[in-house]
Amino acid sequence: MDRRLPPRPGEWIDRGRSVEFRFEGRTYRGFAGDVLASALWASDVRLLGRSFKYHRPRGLYSLAGHDANVMVEDGRRTNLRGDLLPIVPGLDARSVNTAGGLERDRLRFMEWFGRFLPVGFYYKAFHTPRLLFPFYENNMRKIAGLGRINPANTPDDSPKDYAFCDLLVVGAGPAGLAAAIAAGESGLRVLLVDERPRPGGSLAWQTGDSANGPRLEGLLARVRACGNIELRCGTQAGGWYADHWIALFDDRRLTKLRARATLVAAGCFEQPAVFRNNDLPGVMLGSAAQRLIHLYAVKPFDRAVVLAANGDGYRVALDLHAAGVDVAAVADLRREGEPTELARQVAEAGIPVHHGHGVGAAIPGAGKKRIRGATLCPLDSAGNPRTDRAQRVECDGIAMSVGWTPNGGLISQAGGRFVYAENVEQLVPSILPKGVFAAGRANGVFDLDDRIADGTRAGLAAAAHLACTDSSTNGTPPAGPERIVHRGPPPSHPFPIFADKGKKNFVDLDEDLHLADFANAHQEGYDNVELLKRFTTVGMGPSQGKLSNVNAVRILARLNGASINDTGTTTSRPFHQPVSLELLAGRRFHPLRRTPIDPWHARMSAVMMHVGDWLRPEYYPREGRSRDVCIHDEAANVRRNVGLIDVGTLGKLRIDGPDAAAFLERIYTGRFGKQAVGSLRYGLACDETGVIIEDGIIARLADDRFYVSATTSGVAEFFREMQRWALIWGMDVRLSNSTGQLAAMNVAGPHSREALHELTQTDLSPEAFPYLGVREGTVAGAPAILLRVGFVGELGYEVHVPASYGLHVWQSLVGAGERFSIQPFGVEAQRLLRLEKGHLIVGQDTDALTTPDEADVAWAIGKGKPFFVGMRSLEIVRKRPLSRRLVGLTFANGTPLPEECHLIIAEGEIAGRITSIAPNSTLGHPIAMAFVRPDLAEPGTAVRIRLDDGTFSEGRVAKLPFYDPESARQR
Amino acid sequence: MTMPETPPRRSPIHDLLEARGAEFRVVGGVALAVRFPTAENHADVPKSVGLCDQSGLPKLGLKGRDAESWLANQRVDVPAAIYDSRPLPDGGVIVRFGTDEFFLEGGVGGEFVPALAAELESRSGHLYDIHREEAAFVLLGSRVGEVLSQTCALDFRALPPRRVVFTRVAGVSCGIFPDSADNVPSYRIWVDYASAPYLWETLVEIVESLGGSVVPSPRGRV
Known about the structure:
The complex is a heterodimer of chains A (971) and B (222).
Chain A: E1 14-23, E2 26-32, H1 36-42, E3 49-50, E4 57-58, E5 71-73, E6 80-81, E7 92-95, H2 121-125, H3 133-143, E8 160-170, H4 174-185, E9 190-194, H5 212-225, E10 229-233, E11 236-241, E12 245-249, E13 254-264, E14 268-270, E15 283-285, H6 286-294, E16 303-308, H7 311-322, E17 326-332, H8 341-348, E18 353-355, E19 357-364, E20 371-378, E21 391-394, E22 397-401, E23 404-406, H9 409-413, E24 417-421, E25 426-431, E26 436-438, H10 448-470, E27 506-508, E28 513-514, H11 515-523, H12 529-536, H13 549-560, H14 564-567, H15 581-585, E29 593-594, H16 598-603, E30 607-611, E31 614-619, H17 627-640, E32 642-646, E33 651-656, H18 660-667, E34 680-686, E35 692-702, E36 705-710, H19 715-729, E37 734-737, E38 742-748, H20 752-757, E39 774-779, E40 782-788, E41 796-802, H21 803-816, E42 822-824, H22 827-836, H23 871-877, E43 885-890, E44 903-906, E45 909-918, E46 927-932, E47 942-946, E48 952-958
Parallel strand pairs in A: 1-7, 8-9, 8-13, 9-10, 13-26, 15-22, 16-17, 16-22, 17-18, 29-31, 32-42
Antiparallel strand pairs in A: 1-2, 3-4, 5-6, 5-7, 11-12, 12-13, 14-23, 19-20, 20-21, 24-25, 27-28, 30-31, 32-38, 33-36, 33-37, 34-35, 35-36, 38-41, 39-40, 40-41, 43-46, 43-48, 44-45, 44-47, 45-46, 47-48
Helix pairs in contact in A: 4-5, 4-10, 6-7, 7-8, 11-13, 17-22
Chain B: H1 14-19, E1 23-27, E2 30-35, E3 50-53, E4 59-63, H2 67-73, E5 85-87, E6 93-98, E7 101-105, H3 112-119, E8 128-130, E9 135-140, H4 144-151, E10 165-169, E11 172-178, E12 186-191, H5 196-209, E13 213-214
Parallel strand pairs in B: 3-13
Antiparallel strand pairs in B: 1-2, 3-9, 4-7, 4-8, 5-6, 6-7, 9-12, 10-11, 11-12
């Protein structure tokens, strides 16, 4: 049966584009612009999902994104809300949370056990015996759950972006449009968002007035004419964070918006009534029926009952009547009925109206997959239905229009407060934080003209607020128009909730909570709204209580005998609407730094490792050789011939200016004032507590120019420290960090001089360029700084060149060194070589408490210096006995070896730890560096190290360095 | 021993451009990508967004309390305010990074900055040249704002024209210079040489997702 209505103005469907899709294995057709629920309803499909716990049949309910029981998966994504999901060609949707399909769901019999499954039953039933808890958990998740994630689905990165505006207006209904226009015409940059695919809000579907189309067009024309208003439809404001950071979501991205002010004109959520079988397919909110008619041109029912408590219900009846639905009755909860013109129009349409009546029950059809009638009951003086005087009415649909609650989640998240206003019988904002504004129905204003006026008022107020913020005034905005107060009867009923002995009157459809559940929870002592929420889980389902929280509060207030204001409400937290994890994950940035030699490393298939944010060659693999052998061979070639390592990651700093030497004397522990131009010195830096934070070499290029080579991992922080001290001391220095601007390589080994000689005119002879010298010249045609260093314990030259020449110089060195058997070596070989030479690595062989004395580098402290950073602390520390000392350890071959950080144990106490270890050194036996108690630091002392398996390894303290103690090879 | 001549400078993303089939030409000592095997070769300005590598243009950093007067003596129009810029005669730009710190980048094939650098050899006083090797990428086209909004938490519409801002793009510290001309939105991004391959690959992914492409270096500054 096709329930599609003839074309109507303003409909959202494109009848020229038919869309074929599948649902539960069957093929259907709809139109582009349909959502899944509307397209299925148009095909007379009423059973759209199963409920969370009892697996009861559920159908279309709100058509506003709150139909938590109409969730589907499409093979790729899951938990898609059927009342928001656009149909597209090829869509193959299946309902979630069923066993064996929607029609024949094997779990539909859960309902029979409903009386044994009261609220909170699982808290009490499934905690013992503890061994069975995994079984309980596993099966409960299967029975009562949502969709399953498809692990094979690897979505493309969704973009995340930033946006900025003066004023964010949430909701493009009449109030939001008016607010945006007022603010935009005041000169503000306005971003207007609406979660629906088209603007207009309730103007598009609710008011049933043919004049509204042109009215909406008029507002939209003014929006378009205002160049500073950006309209984003299909975009929800999901969360408000401090300083007007707002998370916006559309179907493909997360936008982090920085606004200067926020205006919420997001309207209201229509609230359901609670009566027997109020959850079955065919029972829906009046607004859902109107959306079906006006947006999707679908006839909701053939014969309907309207349950009303406001004028909106009468409009629903009129819309249904106009759409060809036989409206069997309007049951008005109010004894006095509707006082407006709408009552007369309903009467003229021949629709019977029953004042002071409610719906006692929806009468289910076969399998409860649709309804076949309703019982109308007069209400007694207490508002309870008189079931003894029930009147049965045949119908296939019940539309409920009994009240509203503001869509004010963002206001709450921003720190706003709400108060229950009896003139509208709903919550309205009572306190709005600075820069937050509300308008329209969210503000308790319901008349259409009033809503537009309220939007204009709020937009102007926002503009005035921001003008004050911009100016040098005291920040108090000028007084604006008074807030508009609702006139006429309240649009909401104070208690549209009716008891049912059968426990089929649902308050929360997400969680299958019925009225008795609340009475039970209250009886158990959960008489506070936050406690009640956690015990019953009301409002904790996918719709986050948008259709249940208000009724839950009404119920609790009545159970407590308190007012709604005294009862309070639960806390709104982001996200206001469900957000897919795909959007939250989005595109991620993982910055990575590469040296200019990186393409060459890639060609050599180097195994790369992360060092901080750098990527460096760990070693260069060779066919048939293990990692350890490759590393050992690389190191051995440095000892035997010549090796080349990319040290471009080292920090490279320039210290220039008249005070450069004096500045370095303060920063480092050593002396630099009398350092000769063209020479290097080791530099050791401490923090103010005397702890080592950095070491490097300082090259003097001129009287007022120094070049510092700093550690890879510490340079960024160390440079910031330098800048901080330069400011504090007010010294005439200029600091520059050229780390990424320069390539650097170390050519080291007995033949390094010969290899380099081929490429430079700099005199490399030991007399002209001795150990610890620095020269400026060229290498392979590129301007270069050459440093005579000995980190790996061999004759060596660090070559620093502009990054853009780096690869050329490296390749030239490789070529020039070919006849000397030059080979590249990686970070691991370098670590081994420097360990053999006894050179520490700050951060590996030191920790956050290590002083120069402990690390045995106190020789780097200048004697008699008046000041350096950390000096005073070191003077104090030095008055105490040392608690540890960095030493070398050797191991006999074949000994089970410890790893770095394994503990040294003496007399049953921790007496130190391994900081570095090389199982396979070029010396022919394993070596290590370790902190030990000072009484164990004497060379030759045996120490025991506890291994992971609890056994012990034995090493022997050795004097450092292990290799070439006279440093003859590097000179 | 034969000393090699000065080699051409190499962009940090040279290999990435080569992998796209770029043809290179050495202009002013820099190997510039001048052609790609795509339709964009023939379009001066992409309709969506284009990404262009201009790394390797001659650059010069100057610091010291005599820097401003020295530059003025070289007839350079020195910007007065920090982060302000002025054009250089060869199509390049000078930016004031601090009270007495300046950054100069020459135009494509321009000789002005190299000449200044040579002049520095005979400098005196408190003037220090700082080696600058930043990569330079140019984002241009009508959708350039979308690329920036996906990578940078800065409101570029609120910034004054031709003023450099330092911020993070895709998590990397960058200098960004609004360099629009002929009503084509354009931004020049200076980034550390070492971070350039990462940033380039990230920007290419986003640019291509917006229907844009990598474009060859234009004849002069955009």
